[in-house]
Amino acid sequence: MAPSSQPRRAAVIGGNRIPFARANGTYAKAFNQDMLTAALDGLVARFGLAGESLGEVAAGAVLKHSRDFNLTRESVLGSSLAATTPAYDVQQACGTGLEATVLVANKVALRQVDSAVAGGADTASDAPIAVSEGLRETLLALNRARTAGQRAKALARIRPAHLVPDVPRNVEPRTGLSMGEHMAQTAARWAVSRLAQDELAAASHRNLAAAYERGFFDDLVTPFAGLSRDENLRPDSSVEKLARLKPVFGKGEGATMTAGNSTPLTDGASVVLLSSDEWAAERGLPVLAYVVDAQTAAVDYVTGQEGLLMAPAYALPRLLERHGMKLQDFELVEIHEAFASTVLCTLAAWESEDFCRTRLGLEAPIGELDRSRLNVNGSSLAAGHPFAATGGRIVASLAKMLHEKGTGARGLISICAAGGQGVMAILEAA
Amino acid sequence: MAGAYARLVNSPVGTRLAGQLGLPRPVPLRRYAVGEPLVHGAVLLGGPEPAVLGARVGELLAREGVVVVGEVAEAVGGRVAAVVADLGAVERPGDLDVLRAVVAPALSSLQPSGRVVVLGRSPGQAREVAQAAARRALEGITRSIGKELRSGATANLVLVDDGAEGNLDATVRFLLSGRSAYVDGQVVRVGTGTPVQPDDWTRPLSGKVAVVTGAARGIGAAIARVLARDGATVVCVDLPEAGDSLAGTANVVGGTALQLDVTAADAGRRILDHARRRHGGLDIVVHNAGITRDRLLANLDDSRWRSVLEVNLGSILRMNEVLLGDDGIRDGGHLVLVSSIAGIAGNRGQVNYAASKAGVIGVVDALSVDERLRARGITVNAVAPGFIETEMTAKVPFATREAGRLLNSLNQGGLPVDVAETIAWLSQDANAGVTGNVVRVCGQSLLGA
Ligand SMILES: NC(=O)c1ccc[n+]([C@@H]2O[C@H](COP(=O)([O-])OP(=O)(O)OC[C@H]3O[C@@H](n4cnc5c(N)ncnc54)[C@H](O)[C@@H]3O)[C@@H](O)[C@H]2O)c1
Which of A206, A383, B116, B118 is the most exposed place for a label (fewest CB within 10 A)? Predict the structure, then answer.
C-alpha cells in the first residue's frame, strides 16, 4: 500500500436528533423524510455545514413506505446540505443506525470519503400499510390485462377479505412471535426478575431526565414539531409505580415484562457526523471520539437454539479478543434497552461461566459489568426507540460522554436487532 | 407590516377619506437591498462656511457618484433625494437662520423616503454658552423637521466631536441609505476612534465573526440575516427549546447554531469557546435575547419580575465579564445591546421590562467610557426599538398595538430588518467613532420622545 492509502482514524464530530415521540403522539402526522430532514438540518446548523457537499450520507428506516425508496437522498435534497452530497439507504432492522455509522466510518478510514453522516429515522405512527396478498395479485393481473374482458375477469376475483389491509406487526416472520414474546422466553430462561427489570427502567428515566436537566442534550437534540424532550420520558418514574403495571408479554405467573420495562413504539430520527481528522481541523470542529472497531453477530433463534435478541452477547468476545480487552476495561457501556430484560439477559450471559464456555467458547466468563458505567444518561426505555434512529442516538451521546471522560476513554455500544442479529462498536475518546 | 389602520387608509375609499380628514398615510419605506445606491437622486448640500463636515460629505457623495446640488432648481425634475445641512459653524443662535434658508425650500421637493441629515458639533465641546445653545438648538430643529416630513422621509442629526471629522462617513452613509428606514428624529454622536473603511461597502462586515443571542426568530433572526449579508460569520444563539427555528436561521445565513440559555452561569464562556474554536475569534456581540412578562406593578409577582431582569439584563452583565475579557472580543470589536423605548419612556404594565431596558442603557453608558475598552477600540452602543412587528408585539392587545403603529412620524410599525440594519451599522469597523450611543429605531415614536 502507498502511504497515502494507509487506513486512518474515523472521527465522530457530533450528532443530532429530534426528540423521540411516542407512536401516534406528537409526530403522528410526520413522515420519515420530514424527521430525517429535520435531524440533518439541525446537524448542519450545529456544525455550520449549510451549502457544504459532504462525502456521503447513509441512513435508513425499518418501517418504510415504497415511496421512500430513496429516503436518505430525498432527505439530503430537502436539507441545507449541498445537493451534490450523495446518499443511500441502509437497513439492518434496529441495527440500522449503528451499522450505517460503521459503514461510513470504514469509508472514512479507507479514505474513500473525508466526511459523512450516518443515521436513521422511523415512524411507527406513519407505518406503511400494504394491501392484502390476494388484492395485490388481482391488481397486478389487472395491470397486465389487455382487453376489457380480461380486466372484468380480473376485477371479478376481488373478495371482501382481500380488502383487509396488511398492517405491519412487530413479529418475526419465521416464528410468528412478536419480539416481546421472544424476549419473554429468553427472560424466563435467564430467570430475570421483575424487580430487576423495573429498577433498570426507573434508572433509565432518572438518568435521561438528569441528563436533560444538566443540559447534556443541548448540543445533541434539536426540537421538532413543538417537542423539545423525549415524549416517553417520565422523570417521576419509580420502581413502585412501575411495579403496578400488568405484564404484557409472557404467560402466567412467570410473566415479568410490562409496558414500563419494554420500549414503546416510537417516532424519531437521528444523525451522526463523522470525518477525518483533517476535515474536522479545517473547520475548527473538535473531535469527540474515534470509531475503533465494530462487530456484528447473528444467532439461530428460529430453532429456539438461542434467544432472538442475544446476538450481541456473541459479538463481544470477538471484539475483546481483537483488542486484547476485557469488558471491564470500558469506562462506559451502552446496551440498547429494547426491553429491560434484553440488557439483563445479556449481562447475565456474560457473567455465566456455562454460557461463556459452551456458547462463546471462552475459558473464563466475561464477567460482571460495573453498573455505574451502564447507560449512564438513560437509554431506550426512557427515550424510546424509533428503530433505525437508536444507533445514531447512542453513538453521538456516547462520543460526547467519552469526550467528557478524557482522551483514551473507551466505550462499548451494543444493539440487538430483529432477525436474531446484533451490532457492536467500540468508540474511544479523542 | 400593514395594520388595520394602514389597510383602511390605503384602500380606495380610505385614501379619499384620509385625504379629506388630513389623516396620516403610511407609505412603504425605502429599504436597502444589496447593491442599491445610497440615494436615488440628487443630494442638496449646504450650510455656512467653513463647512468642514459638509465638504467631507461632499467627497463621500462624489466617490459614490451621487449628484450634489446647491439649490433644488439644479436637480433634475426639481426633486432631491436628500438634504444635508452642515451647521457645524454656528456660533450663536442667530446663525441658525441659515438652516431655514438651506433646508426649508427643499422640504417640499423631497422624494418619498427622502432624508434630511443635519450635521453639527457637540454642544458639550462648545467654547461658549451661546455656542452650546446654538449647537443644542439643532436637536430641536431636526426633531421638529422629522415630525413635519411626510411620505417616509426622515430627519436625523449627527453631532461630531472635535477631531472626529474623519469619522463621519459610515454614519452619513447609514442615514442617507435605505438601511436607516425606521430611524427618525435621532441624534448620533460621532467621536474619535480609528475607523477602518471596508474594501467593499456592500460587505462592510467581511471576515468578522458575530454572535447574536435570541436569533431563532423575530428581530434576532433578522439581525443574523443582515450581519451575514454584510459579510459576517454569525453564531446564532437561542434557547434549546427554540432549536428548530434557530437551526433554520443558522442554515439560511450559513452560520452555526448554539443552543443555550443566556442566563446559564457559563453562557459567556460557551459562546466565546464556540466562536474561537469554530470561527477563530469574536468581533461582534449583539445582546438581543429578551422577554416580556407584563403586569401592573401591583400584580407583578416575583417570577415575572426576576425572569425579565435576569434574561434582559443580568445575563448580559454576566456574559460581558467573559466576552469583554482579555481573551474575549477582539480589539476593535463591537458590542451592541438591544434596549427599548420602554426603557426610555417607561410603559404601563412594564415596570420589570422598562427596568431591564433602562438598565441596558446604563450598561452602555458605563462601558463606553471604560478606559480599558476604549484603549482596545471596542465600541459599545444600544438600539432602542419602538414598535416593531414581531411575535412579541403580536401579543400586545389590539388597540395598544394599533396605537403603537401610528403614534410615530412614519405612521407605521417598523420591521425587524430595520433594527437589524441599525445594529449592522453599529457593528462596522468603519463606524469606530460611534460609541456610547443609544439609537432609537422607532420611526420617531411619540413615546419617550
Ligand atoms: N418587537 C418589538 O417591538 C421590540 C421593541 C423593543 C425592544 N425589543 C427587543 O428586541 C429583542 C428581540 O425581540 P423580538 O420582538 O424579536 O422578540 P421574540 O420574542 O420574537 O424573540 C426573542 C428571542 O429571544 C429568545 N430568548 C428568550 N429568552 C432567552 C434566553 N434566556 N436565552 C436565549 N434566548 C432567549 C427567544 O427564544 C426568542 O427567540 C428583545 O430584547 C426585545 O426586548 C423588541
Answer: A206
Q: A341 has which bridge partners?
A: none
Contacts with A294 (C-beta within 8 Å, 6 or more apart), sequence order: A98, A102, A105, A319, A423, A424, A425, A426
Q: What residues does B107 pair with on adjacent strands? A: none
A404 burial level (CB within 10 Å; 0-12, 13-18, 19+):
exposed
Q: Measure the CA–CA gap between A272 and B174, rounded to whole angstroms.
A: 44
Is A416 catalytic? The answer is yes
For residue B88, is pLDDT > 60? yes
Any catalytic annotation for residue A345?
no
Other Cβ atoms less than 10 A from the Cβ of A382: the count is: 28
B341 CA → ligand 1 middle, Å? 14
Count CA atoms closer than 13 A to B358's CA, side-chain side: 13
Q: Span B251-267, mean pLDDT?
A: 98
Please report the pLDDT score of residue A3 as a whole number. Answer: 55
Domain boundaries, chain A: 135-163, 179-214+292-429
pLDDT of residue A1: 46
Q: How far is the CA of B406 from the centre of ligand 1 (A)?
A: 22
Ligand 1 pocket, CB under 6 A: B 213-214, 216-220, 238-239, 242, 261-263, 288-291, 311, 338, 340, 385, 387-388, 390-393
Checking if the pLDDT of A167 tops 90, the result is no
The dihedrals phi and psi of A66, each to the nearest 5 degrees, come to -65, -30
- CA–CA distance, A342 with A360 (Å, rounded to integer): 18
Residue A172 — very low, low, confident or very high, per pLDDT cuts 50/70/90?
A: confident
Q: How far is CA A169 from CA A124, A225, A257, B213, B229, in A?
A: 10, 26, 19, 46, 51
CATH superfamily entry for domain A179-214+292-429: Thiolase/Chalcone synthase (3.40.47.10)
Across chain B, what does the average pLDDT equal?
A: 94
pLDDT band at A130 (very low <50, low <70, confident <90, very high): low
| pLDDT tens-place string over residues B200-209 | 999 999 999 9
Is the pLDDT at B10 greater than 90, yes or no? no
Question: Which residues are CB-contacts of B419 (< 8 A; sequence separation ≥ 6)?
Answer: B182, B219, B222, B223, B338, B383, B385, B388, B441
Q: Which among A17, A7, A45, A13 has a CA at the least distance from the CA of A115? A: A13
- Write the ipTM: 0.88
- Compute the average pLDDT of residues A11-31: 96
Q: Are strands B233-238 and B68-69 parallel, antiparallel or unpaired?
A: unpaired
Separation of alpha carbons B209 and B83, rounded Å: 35
Average confidence (pLDDT) over B262-286: 97
The whole-number pLDDT of residue A152 equals 81
Q: Do A228 and B256 lie within an 8 Å CB cutoff?
A: no
Count of CB atoms within 10 A of residue A407's CB?
10
Assigned C-alpha cell, B33: 437591498
Domains along the sequence of chain B with CATH: 1-28 (no CATH), 31-190 (3.40.50.720), 209-441 (3.40.50.720)
Task: Name the band, by pLDDT with cuts 50, 70 and 90, for residue B22.
Answer: low
Q: How confident is the model at residue A154 (pLDDT cuts 50, 70, 90)?
A: confident
Residue with cell 421538532: A224
pLDDT over threshold 90, residue B23: no
Burial of B158 (0-12, 13-18, 19+ CB in 10 A): buried
**Which of A13, A47, A228 best tests the B interface by mutation, with the highest count of B CBs <10 A?**
A228
Cell readout for A322 is 481483537
**Which secondary structure element, helix H or strand E, spans residue B80, and what is its range?**
strand B80-86
Q: What is the DSSP string of A120-161?
A: EEE-STT---BPPHHHHHHHHHHHH--SHHHHHHHHHT--GG
Cβ-based burial of B39 (10 A; exposed 0-12, middle 13-18, buried ≥19) = buried
Place A51 in a pLDDT band, splitting at 50, 70 and 90.
very high
